[in-house]
Amino acid sequence: MVTKLLISARSMPELNLCAQNSLGMLNSSQLDNATLAIFMDKTTSRVVSVVYIIIFLVNVPGNGISLWLLWFRTHPKTPSIIFMINLTLTDLAVGLALPLQIVYQFKGYNWTYGSWTCSFMSVLFYANMYCSILTMTAISVDRYLGIVRPVQFREMKRRKECAVIGCVFMWAIVLIVLHPLQTTDLTYEVNSLNITTCFDVLKKDMLPTLKDWAIFLFTLSGILFLIPFIITVICYICIIHKLVKTSKTTQKGRALRLAFSVLSVFVICFTPNNVLLLAHAVRRLYYNDSLYMAYKLSLSLSCINSCLDPFIYYFASKEFRRKLRLVLRLDVSSSEGTRAELHRESLFSARSTNQAPMDDEGAGVSISLRNDSVQ
């Protein structure tokens, strides 16, 4: 998530006129000195660029390998695997788009790729964050049903189709909410600095009234972040409570590590950005003040999410690491018992709960490792 939001103090009409006035493209002279100082701060811009470069170098190969294993080597395609493919695709899309943002930061907030590309990038990065949040919540609900409610879980039919429909529904909801970003020119020419910003100066007339702004911000921070976060926390608390009573110590440890990892992503990557986005917008809209620098620094944290998912959901699993080494031919000794491993339990599916408590993260999928197909 690399989108940035800065509503210039002078780009805002008085509060009691906000429903009656709309602003078009503003002249650079209307930007206050604090805003101009931010755009002239090359150090922060370059530090953020370096962070994005590191994220890019981890994101693309990590999510690329994960997508290959999920799509071509993981069978059967359980609902959790379908959700994870969706999550990996969104992360990989952001990783591939990061070079444009890196160049933009290195140029000192100078966007040279046109207004349409700016709008597309802004929507992409916001969509990645909120689709990731919704997808992680869907995975937690699927795990909850399989472990805590195994009877109802077995009785559910067409779960794969529901998972696919769920992914489409997530994207539809997020894109509908982000529609104002798609239809607005998010570039802004700062003539005094000879730069064109991309979504760093947000025009007030993107939405017609203060009420529309309140609904927009509440939907992002409340419906697309806070509610999924609460659902995820409740699901993992119930899962851990169930495993404490029924599972072995090692199984409890795995569940605790996974729950801690998922919740850490919410707390570290998603919470600061969403809280500061809401606080910054409220202070700018109501008090003519700004939290932009704090908000901007939180962006790098939100973007880190796109390269952490492969480690959280896969490399935390000993079983997955074994199979990954076997696929890559990095550990010849791992070939022992390959046929037996095809049916061993791995990460996320809860099919094993039909007969017994969750084993090895509660999974029932296998990574297909046909010797004749591995080159």
Textual characterization of the structure:
- The protein starts with 32 loop residues before the first helix and ends in an 8-residue tail after the last strand.
- The protein has 375 residues and is mostly helical.
- It is globular.
- The protein has helices at residues 33-40, 42-73, 79-106, 115-147, 150-155, 159-177, 179-182, 210-246, 249-287, 292-315, 318-327, 338-341, and strands at residues 74-75, 187-190, 195-198, 366-367.
- The model is unreliable at 1-29 and 331-375 (pLDDT under 50).
- It has one domain (35-366): Rhodopsin 7-helix transmembrane proteins (Rhopdopsin 7-helix transmembrane proteins), CATH 1.20.1070.10.
- Strand 2 and strand 3 form a beta hairpin.
- The strands form two sheets. The chain has a two-stranded antiparallel sheet with strand order 1-4. Strands 2-3 form a two-stranded antiparallel sheet.
- It is a multi-pass membrane protein.
- It holds the Pfam family 7tm_1.
- Reported CATH architecture: Up-down Bundle
**Which range does the strand content fall in?**
under 5%
Largest sheet: 2 strands, antiparallel
Q: What is the arithmetic mean of pLDDT?
A: 74
Total helical elements: 12
Instruction: Supply the number of structural domains.
Output: 1
CATH class bucket: Mainly Alpha
C-alpha Rg (nearest Å): 23 Å
* Order of helix and strand elements from N to C terminus: HHEHHHHHEEHHHHHE
Subcellular location: Cell membrane
InterPro entries: GPCR_Rhodpsn, GPCR_Rhodpsn_7TM
Transmembrane segments: 50-71, 83-103, 123-141, 162-181, 213-239, 260-282, 294-316
Family: Belongs to the G-protein coupled receptor 1 family.
